[in-house]
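Quick one: co-fold with glycine.
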Amino acid sequence: MNHFKRFIICTLFFTSFNHSKAQIFFKTHPGINPYQFETIKEKLFTHAAVTSAHPLASMVGAAIMQDGGNAFDAAIAVHFALAVVHPSAGNIGGGGFLLARTNNGKLIGLDFREAAPAIASRDMYLDEKGNPITSKSLEGPLASGIPGSVSGMFNAHVYAKLPMAQLMEPAIELAQYGFVLTEKEAGSLNSVRDELLKLSSAPSAYTKNTKWKKGDTIFQPELAATLRRIQINGLAGFYEGVTADLIVKEMANGSGIISTTDLKDYQTKKRVPIEFDYKNHHVISFSPPSSGGILIAQMMKMISPFDIAAMGYQSPAAVGLMVESQRRAYADRAEHMGDPDFWKVPTRTLISDAYAQQRMQDYTPGVAGNSKNTNAGHAKESEQTTHYSVIDKEGNMVAITTTLNGSYGNKTVVAGAGFLLNNEMDDFSTKPGVPNMFGALGGEANAIAPGKRMLSSMTPTLVTVNNKAYLTIGSPGGTTIPNQIYEGLINMIDFKMSLKQSIDASRFHHQWIPDQIQVEADFPDATIQALKKQGYKVNQRGYFGRMDGIRILPNGKIEAAGDKRGDDSVAGY
Ligand code: GLY
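Sure, here it is.
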């Protein structure tokens, strides 16, 4: 974009955003049409790229970079846009992790994970007999942690170039003037209609009397007004005043416990990323309260002594080896991982080479392990979420994974504010030894405490080669996320696949308990049968995850790819 056009947009923007109801962003970007757009699954770009769960969000991010923004500007604009166009997981009522590497090599980890309210307590989801009441940690206002996303975006803005108001404008216009639903988004909204009505105190923009269908335009005026309050008042537009009051009012409608003080006190935290090397690649991922970075470090280190490429892609030998690393690492997750501000996570030990070797000492190729015999190692010291990746023309890389936990979170839309709240409290161990919605076990490390952040599996990940930016990648999918990233990286590094092939490849998942391999429906049958003969229990299931990534090829071109499993789409220039 030339300087004159940029000047006109900025002038228009600053003279009108506060007062006018007119569209600014979409008027000045006629190439992005919220009423007619297509999905682009894979493309090479010269300067910069975005991949996200929705074509409109990706296009908004790319346009922001063409308007002079960097990868952080784009990521913020994409985040707010996803809160509008992808309400099952995009959010302002949830939380997430931002992992970034600037073009001069500085690493940034922002933890805007939800936190337990001040009056949360260890046994708050148990009945008189001490048994978990799962609906309480999953549905309605009591299931919500204090939302972190808006704080996360304002903390990310420190690294951005453009005014926050400009970055929020596309989302506000998408909410106010509407956009057309894709077939998947329409079907998804229809599938939760009854629950949204049951668990919210008032009907919302997401429900109507007839079924949503592809091509319908959805308008979200209350969400537009909330975003406008944030645009005008900054953090206080969400964590204080009208929006905060509406959240607390919605709490009262369903025995929720988030207070105005909880909201006002919420803080994004900086985290030091996990870093390790694997076959000439330097992998950077998120540290606790995410389990993701530690898990992929453990698993990749456990298999690094083996020539997995020689075993063959998705061969019984290669899958068996990776499954055994998954079993061992996930056993450690249950025992050792939680919010590091409340629990001493033995990170250094868990990701050490020596520990990985020791964990694999009892591995016998071609024989199924048994989770009853695999305890955590001795280490002293809705699957609905969404991921997006950005690389800008300066080589800054940003990976953000953000979530409401379950699809549409706790299915409570804050009346008058138009956004969904998370049900992230279910990611705590509501009772040590009892699985959560992902079937994952947890122990004391992840017990509920006021102010504590629940253990996550979100794994935004970056890779450098020879100290140069190479890859940004991530995915939704609850506890399957670290395994998806692990498999995606091995597909690219060992099996030499393109980014798109490695993202679309059929997946397998083992998480220690339950002791079974879950495979996607298109997983090769010959491998399934061979694994069963070795003693594995194998369960076929539907697709899991929607991985979105971008990598820089040796010729400098930027390869962006969106997962075949959703509406994921790339954009760039
Ligand atoms: N709520 C899914 C996760 O954080 O892992």
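If it helps, The longest helix spans residues 316-336.
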